[in-house]
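Input record, target 12 of the design panel.
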């Protein structure tokens, strides 16, 4: 089930927050909730069960090791989740591309590699 962003944010506050501009954000080896906000962001969750909200922009999200959840948001996003764990990817509005393995679930992805 996809939870609306405002409801989700209230349930899981951000542990790492970007800016409205273009950011490069790295998570930690633990479980992170990363909110990149606007801009064309590069987000790498690293290890752990991470949740990434990229926001508006042409974003690149790499979940890293662990069962991750990624929301691309509006824009043409690229999502990477091919680490052999069950990840959940939602590209959001836009023309999105995903690199996945057979364990992953996807929504709103137009192209797969």
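The sequence produced for target 12 reads:
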């Amino acid at each position: 089930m996809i939870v609306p962003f405002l409801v989700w944010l209230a349930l899981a506050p951000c542990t790492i927050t970007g800016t409205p501009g273009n950011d490069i954000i790295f998570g930690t080896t633990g479980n992170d909730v990363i909110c990149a906000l606007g801009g064309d962001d590069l987000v790498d969750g690293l290890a752990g069960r991470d949740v990434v909200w990229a926001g508006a922009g042409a974003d690149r999200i790499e979940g890293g090791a662990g069962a991750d959840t990624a929301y691309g948001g509006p824009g043409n996003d690229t999502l990477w989740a091919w680490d052999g764990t069950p990840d959940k990817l939602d590209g959001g509005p836009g023309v999105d591309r995903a690199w996945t393995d057979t364990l992953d679930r996807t929504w709103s992805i137009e192209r797969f590699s």
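The longest strand covers residues 78-81.
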